[in-house]
Structure to design on (315 residues):
């Protein structure tokens, strides 16, 4: 039956349509995963904020990456945990739009942050004599504003466009809301939504190309000396791994949402939809925390001091 947008108060999340015993197992894994994400990212943020000698552009951008991970996951995990224990997998109309905005603005923010990190590494390795004159505090602030403003603006426009549509259904075939799933429920052609969606995809695909081009130059500059090669491996490889992971995961999610067929099993769809919400928030702080010596040393000192304090209290 045709439903006008004014009558659509809730959406049904059809991706959670599996047996209850599987849901309890997944709930247990998610209940373990989410606190780890919070702990890992909060630890890196704390270490950077509490150590003034880490107030360098690279570490500030890393801190921003971790803050963004906390922002994005809070839009998914609490609701997902609730749904795993519920028999009614629904989300309000407004809640759906907010969830889509938070999850995907966070993903775009990760691309923007990785882009400014690529610029920072390029300047540090390829133009070291000019680095401090270019990467000033003012430049860092502008980079931070760019990494948040453009994703939030893009997703705000997409969500506002979706909110004006007249809908003819309430079924979303995913574990969470995304903007295109709402657009597909429209009763009428969605040319404007489609065109602007492609513009956003192209803009952030250009981000990825820009990062890859900068890394081609970085590799060329790094092979000239052993010292630069070691510097590249320590500071740039974590960045490159983060980029590849989020690009592949998000590209599949976007392309499958738009062009996917029902020949894929629901379990495979769920796994691929969850990948960019699980792997990057855990992997990024681990990779950077273990690979960057300054952060690794501070983490070791932090945990060592905590252990000593605990032992003293026990005695």
């Amino acid at each position: 039956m045709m439903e006008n947008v004014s009558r659509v108060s809730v959406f049904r999340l059809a991706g959670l349509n599996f047996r209850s015993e599987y849901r309890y197992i997944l709930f247990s894994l998610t209940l373990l995963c989410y606190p780890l994400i919070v702990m890992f990212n909060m630890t890196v943020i704390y270490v950077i904020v509490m150590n003034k000698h880490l107030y360098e552009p690279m570490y500030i951008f890393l801190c921003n990456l971790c803050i963004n991970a906390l922002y994005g996951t809070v839009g998914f995990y609490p609701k997902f945990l609730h749904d795993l224990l519920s028999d009614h997998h629904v989300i309000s109309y407004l809640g759906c739009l907010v969830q889509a905005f938070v999850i995907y603005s966070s993903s775009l923010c990760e691309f923007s942050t990785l882009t400014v990190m690529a610029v920072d590494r390029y300047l540090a390795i390829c133009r070291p004599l000019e680095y401090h004159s270019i990467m000033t505090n003012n430049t860092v602030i502008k980079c931070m504003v760019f990494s948040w403003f453009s994703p939030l603006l893009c997703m705000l426009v997409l969500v506002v466009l979706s909110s004006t549509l007249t809908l003819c259904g309430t079924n979303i075939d995913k574990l969470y809301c995304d903007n295109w799933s709402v657009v597909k429920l429209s009763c009428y052609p969605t040319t404007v939504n489609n065109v602007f969606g492609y513009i956003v995809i192209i803009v952030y695909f250009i981000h990825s190309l820009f990062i890859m081009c900068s890394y081609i130059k970085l590799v060329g500059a790094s092979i000239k000396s052993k010292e630069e090669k070691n510097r590249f491996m320590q500071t740039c490889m974590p960045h490159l791994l983060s980029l590849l992971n989020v690009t592949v995961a998000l590209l599949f999610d976007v392309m499958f949402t738009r062009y996917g067929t029902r020949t894929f099993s629901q379990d495979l769809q769920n796994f691929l939809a969850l990948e960019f919400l699980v792997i990057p928030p855990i992997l990024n702080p681990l990779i950077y925390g273990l690979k960057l010596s300054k952060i690794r040393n501070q983490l070791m000192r932090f945990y060592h001091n905590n252990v000593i304090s605990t032992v003293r209290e026990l005695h």
